[in-house]
Amino acid sequence: MAGRPEVFDVLILDATNKQSLAATRCLGRAGLRVALGESAGQYRPHLPPSFRSRYCARSVTLANYLDDPAAYVAAVIAFAREHRVQVVLPTGDASIAALAPQRERLAEFGCTLAVAPDAALEIANDKSRTLEIAAKLGIAYPASVQVHGIDELRKAEADFGYPFVLKPTVSWTGKGADRCVPVDVLDEAEALDVTRRFLDTGAGVLAQRWACGRREGVTLFIDGGEVVASCGHVAHRTSPPLGGASVVRESIAVPWAILDASVRLARAIGLEGTCEVEYRRDADGRPLLMEVNARLAGTLENAIKSGVNFPLMIWQQSTGRHVDPARSYRTGVRTRWLHGDLRWLRENRARPGRPDSVSAARGAWAFAAEFARTRYYDYFDRDDLGPGLAELRNTVKVIGKRGR
């Protein structure tokens, strides 16, 4: 019938996130019709590269959730209802926070919001509450001090010495345009400044002893309390350098200590679906819990290339289908986000002598040598060239502006 709205199987949100593109490709290749949406304030001046994907059947610009979260939620619900969307899949903290309270409204017309249960989200998104559960389970994490002001900072200084790390207890509070990320501090003046900035966003603040070892993590898929898939990784570089998004990562066999702790923690929190549990080793090689991401994470491309199709599992679980388990995967698979690695190169040069920094020469060598080591790149796919070309154009424009 003429004028009848198109039907889409799934609406994937946060189209600027590279994991949204990876999920779009997986579900599109499975024969599903995928619509991609993004908040207007998150991508200007460039359209998200994922909008150029051959597997994006429809791109949708939504209201800016920073300026008007109610309008953003209303637009998502209206689109899902009009186009008979079966699953709405957000991949960012802000969109999850906005939409989680609306899952019953979506369910009224047969649509599932593919996020963890509310109670589990509340714990996983709060580092303090996550660490409380970890402590009860005997899972190690960095020595920590809850910070409210100068007295606690001086206690952290006495306990840890500088440098140490300041973390927001929650990454997204709804105040400001960006997620809050961990920051290293070298002296009291820096510590006070960072603490005030975090407190101004409405987040609590944790001071933690800096763990200097490698970053490891595991992505789990939990269905009815059973772990049906897992995929381990090591993040070789991140942007920002201290605890940011991984820009070079490699699949590894998950060490038993990490897998066991992660499964026990996820079950104790009550997580279902996909979650990523991150660790960092200390100077003695002991893995310490960093955080839990109760959503698809930026390491998704690495898991997919290693043979674990987490997006398809999300679709199967959300629509009441049998979830096909993944009992094994390839290790040694290395993936790279080129734009992010360029950003890491610039950030590293601006951080001489700080935690997780290397000399400019060593950084340049690591960046250049990666071209010989890595076969797979985020955004780039021979079967789907549009997003990679768009990402490359955006990267060239950014480099050109900074070179002027």
Word description of this protein:
Helix 1 packs across helix 11 (310-318), helix 6 packs across helix 9 (256-269) and helix 12 packs antiparallel against helix 13 (360-373). Helices cover 38% and strands 22% of the residues. With 404 residues, it is α/β, with parallel strands linked by helices. A seven-stranded mixed β-sheet has the order 14-13-10-11-12-15-16, sandwiched between helices. The protein starts with 9 loop residues before the first strand and ends with a helix.
The major pleated sheet works out as: 7 strands, mixed
From the alpha carbons, calculate the radius of gyration and give it in angstroms.
21 Å
Q: Which ranges are low-confidence, i.e. pLDDT below 50, for 5 or more consecutive residues?
A: none
The number of E-state strands comes to 16
Query: What percent strand?
Result: 15-25%
Regarding quaternary structure, what we see is single chain
Structural class: alpha/beta
Share in helix: 25-40%
State mean pLDDT (0 to 100 scale). Answer: 93
